[in-house]
Task: structure prediction
Amino acid sequence: MPVVVEDVMRLLCSISEERKMKAAVKHSGKGALVTGTVAFVGGLVGGPPGLAVGGAVGGLLGAWMTSGQFKPIPQILMELPPAEQQKLFNEATAIVRHLDWTDAVQLTALVMGSEALQRQLLAMLVGYVTKELRAEVRYDD
Result:
């Protein structure tokens, strides 16, 4: 049975949904852009004092915009481009390659029946999200 990317992605979505995992992708570039833009406009409008006020307001606005934007990991996984899904698929199949399964439902049932496999896949997923996506992972209770 050929291993299908969609089946493995569904498995990872199921595991992360079960653990109520969310991630906040850090948008530092967006915050820097907002800060710089507001400081620039402040400088144009108010000269040197406007630049100082614009920089302070832009910094606060940029920090507020980029903080706490947590999204469910299943949503993030399904929005990944195909190349990134393939990379994640390769890492996950290295963990589940010894299992004999025919579809996503059977694969998910096999993995959910094994705490050790769940831990391995979760560790791989958390590593991917934190390193590749540079995101912070949170578990909701």
Summary: The longest strand covers residues 21-25.
